[in-house]
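User: Can you fold this complex?
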Amino acid sequence: MSDDAKKKMTPYTIPIGPTHPALKEPVMFTFEMNGEQILKADFAPGQTHRGIEWMGMRRNPVQIVHLTDRICGICGVSHSLAFARAVEQIMEIEVPERADYIRAIIAEFERIQSHLLWAGVAAHELGFDTLLHLTWRVRERAMDTIELLTGNRVNYGIIQVGGVRRDFTPDLYPAIEECLQYYSDLKSTLLKVFLEDKTIHMRCRDCGVLTYEDALKLCTVGPTARASGVNMDVRVDYPFAAYGDLAIEPILPDAHMGETRGDVFDRIVVRLLEVEQSIDIVRQCLDRMPAGEIVWEAKVAKILNQFKKAHGEALGRHEAPRGEVLHYVRMDGKEHPTAWKVKASSYSNLMSWIPMLEGEQIADIPIIVASVDPCLSCTDRVAVVRNGDRGVMTKEDLHRLSVAKTRRLMA
Amino acid sequence: MKTTPDKLLSPDEVVAVFARKFGKGVRESRITERREGVGKRPSYDIWLDIDKSLLHAAVEELMRLHFPHLGVISGTDIGDAVELNYHFSIYYGTKHGEYMVTLTVALPKGDLTVPTIADLIPGAVFSEREKQEMLGIEVVGIPDGRRLFLPEEFPEGVYPWRKDETGIPASMVKDLWAVGRPENRPVPPKAVPEEQAAEAAPAEEERHE
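Assistant: Here's the predicted assembly.
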């Protein structure tokens, strides 16, 4: 076979990763390509596996709560909340009602900042950087409020086994309401720039489709599942913390758009509407906030002593911004748990990449991969192997391809 | 696929369905309840301890009620066996009506095999791959048996979640506190002792005046 014939041989393979511009953490993709079209997709996570579960099984739950804060840089409260709820259930701790409300409020602020962060990333992947800067600027307001409430922008450290470590006193309510008002006023602008924009429509409509059946079969969770029409939201279905007391309905795309297509656009719709829903949930919480204690036991030594009496297993769940977080804990009368399994929301969503990506083009990879809001991280190198020739595509190259596709569609 | 349940059963009725179908194959069952918030609405977790040979049939039985969402499979090394817990949820999409259903199977250390459920729920393969590498079990019939999270150079025969001799040996653990400071770096600046800092402070104030 001549060299020319070899070059034309299809399919060829493109590995993307283990580091990739569209991700916040590394993952290794391998694509089998025919020209611009993806025939087959495969991925290998675990590029930054830290063995947190192994570490946790050698620590006590008060220490683990602070370890869970650091599982994810964006979900600062989701993992701690799920873990603390599992331990509380084993130890049969009654969490004060006020603490349940504080937990829900901070979880909703987390959702606001996380969804806005994601919306910015999505805009950037499409080459719409003006919108990235706008969304990230308005996101700062939520970060400031979180800092005011907990003392930190990330790793809030607010959850304790049996309650929370800081009270949201009534003098903070005006600041919270001011922040909520800021987002209420912005709502129509954000919906307009994202949903009525021609470019976003062209790039995201019918792109990266996940069908209802696939979403169920692949165990998808959160906004990714809801965008495919799966009615699933832990806050609504499975009452916990303050959520059982509140009026909440799951956000599904057909209520707003009249139909469900399960594409990237629907995922944008669901997340933007959830920002609005979170504002409403925080307001409901503030209205009903019961008075009283915020923690079951303030003395850490006493809590630690209780762990030694704890026997049993339990599940802690929470609806994180990306979907269901699930912690399984088993205690056998020792200070440290016998078993601890962390199931992050992205754990359930990664499999859905495969049906979304297959059949799409290289230039769509960044936005489709980002559309499930994967909790993996970012850097700037992509290796391309074509018939044994190895070239490296930088973050800029891939981004340029994506921008070029937008331009092409506009022409 | 049963995406809409015919009838919403109570947690007791769900347990009864399994007891009727599998008899003594269900070794233990319990229902735990948790109530939070002011309204104290209950959320239910159903735990069923079943024979390993019944796992596949039990998942099929669950699918007859409602297509279950598989959260994750967790596992524990309990000494002479490895226990796997399949954490499902059913009746999602019903306001305050979702239950967690956990199917527990014990795999004796002499026979660490379990049938795959990926033929019923394709997404399960992700969690099954993780259990293979972390617990050293074998999922029979798994459509994709590659490692998932562990790196390629991770030694064979070492399983991070095991508590016996196949667990992580002490030689593989790096204690951060024992690593010490790299020798080829400049010495860090020394903090001024508190007493000296206190003495220096008033002098500074005078200068400002």
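The longest helix of chain B spans residues 194-208. Residues 24 and 183 of chain B are 65 Å apart (CA to CA).
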